[in-house]
């Protein structure tokens, strides 16, 4: 006659199952996060390739961040300089043929990073263009035609008012073109001159290895946090001016004035308003 399991034996089996679950579940979660990060990287590679193809058809000149900076064009989906029909996304769309609907403003497909798309709207893409350096700060001959003021150095140079020519870049393999973020991203000089620590205006997200998740900015940062949430991930995917993409430490991209999470995560702003103080952002840093 076969004996039944004793209570002790059953408890041992349950304990073993619990231990295995505790070991395996985090592994499964990490594998899922890694798969999303890879998908985001693949998207970014396609987008950056679109930029490179645009350069080839445009005398090596980068796409303007908008072709409606003066708000003078016929509205497509709401009008203004942020009308998707005139933004850089739509300008490089013919080379990617994925994810841009200029009529509605909706961005999908390649413009969605699986890691963070659930926290953004359909018209807020998950990748941001380094427009201060490459896309022209103004692009409008009638309004604000001059350069930025001196506090935004080195981006106050007149060369930055118009899109960059790829042949003039000092270190194309180290200059950011596109990265995890909302539509447009700004260099350390921006937040340094603004002096508010307004993290929702930086446009740089840590989309991977996220800590506690979305955090609110400091009290002085304004109320626009729901539209452009900020993540606290340690890693961001970045596409560079020579065409390659890679994952880097997010805090290296932003100003030391930007407090990320409980004051514990800060970027670096060495050199202040100089090209060297904005590595990866400025056209001519040496």
TrEMBL record:
Entry's Pfam families? N_methyl
* InterPro entries noted in UniProt: Bac_GSPG_pilin, N_methyl_site, Pilin-like
Gene Ontology CC entries for this record: type II protein secretion system complex
Q: Which UniProt keywords apply?
A: Methylation
Q: Does the keyword Transmembrane apply?
A: no
Q: Which GO terms describe its biological process?
A: protein secretion by the type II secretion system
Q: Which SUPFAM superfamilies match?
A: Pili subunits
Name of the protein: Prepilin-type N-terminal cleavage/methylation domain-containing protein
What taxonomic lineage is listed for the species of origin? Bacteria, Bacillati, Armatimonadota, Fimbriimonadia, Fimbriimonadales
């Amino acid at each position: 006659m076969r004996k039944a399991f004793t209570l002790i034996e059953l408890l041992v089996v349950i304990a073993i199952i619990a231990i295995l679950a505790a070991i395996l579940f985090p592994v499964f979660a990490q594998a899922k996060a890694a798969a999303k990060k890879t998908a985001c990287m693949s998207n970014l590679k396609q987008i950056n390739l679109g930029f490179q193809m645009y350069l080839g058809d445009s005398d090596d000149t980068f796409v303007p961040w908008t072709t409606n900076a003066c708000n003078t064009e016929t509205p497509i989906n709401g009008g203004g300089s942020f009308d998707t029909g005139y933004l850089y996304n739509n300008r490089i769309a013919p080379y990617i043929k994925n994810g841009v609907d200029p009529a509605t403003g909706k961005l999908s497909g390649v413009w969605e990073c699986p890691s963070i798309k659930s926290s953004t709207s359909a018209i807020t893409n998950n990748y941001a263009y380094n427009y201060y350096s490459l896309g022209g700060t103004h692009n409008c001959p009638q309004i604000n035609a001059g350069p930025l003021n001196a506090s935004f150095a080195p981006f106050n140079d007149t060369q930055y008012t118009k899109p960059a020519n790829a042949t003039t870049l000092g270190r194309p393999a180290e200059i950011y073109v596109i990265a995890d973020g909302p539509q447009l991203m700004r260099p350390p000089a921006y937040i340094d001159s603004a002096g508010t620590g307004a993290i929702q205006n930086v446009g740089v997200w840590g989309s991977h290895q996220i800590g506690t998740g979305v955090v609110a900015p400091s009290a002085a940062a304004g109320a626009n946090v729901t539209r452009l949430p900020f993540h606290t991930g340690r890693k961001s995917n970045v596409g560079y001016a020579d065409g390659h993409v890679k994952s880097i430490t997010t805090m290296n991209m932003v100003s030391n004035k930007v407090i990320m999470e409980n004051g514990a995560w800060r970027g670096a702003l060495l050199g202040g308003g100089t090209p060297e103080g904005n590595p990866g952002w400025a056209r001519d840093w040496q």
